[in-house]
Amino acid sequence: MKIVLGVGGGIAAYKACLLLRLFKEAGHDVRVVPTQAALTFVGAPTWAALSGHPVSASVWDDVHEVPHVRIGQQADLVVVAPTTADLLAKAAHGLADDLLTNVLLTARCPVLLAPAMHTEMWTHPATVANVATLRERGVTVVEPASGRLTGADTGPGRLPEPEDLFAAALALLESGESGQRSREGARPAEERTRGRRSDHALAGRHVVVSAGGTREPLDPVRFLGNRSSGRQGVALAKAALERGARVTLVAGPIEVPAPDGADVVRVESALQMREAMTVAAQDADVVVMAAAVADFRPSEVAEHKIKKSADADDAPVVTLVRNPDILAGLVASRRAGQVVVGFAAETGDETGSALDHATAKLAKKGCDLLVLNDVAAGKVFGKDDTEVTLLSADGTVTSVPAGTKETVAGAIWEAVVPLLAP
Ligand code: C5P
Question: In angstroms, rounded to a whole number, what is the distance separating the alpha carbons of residues 36 and 57?
Answer without folding.
Answer: 6
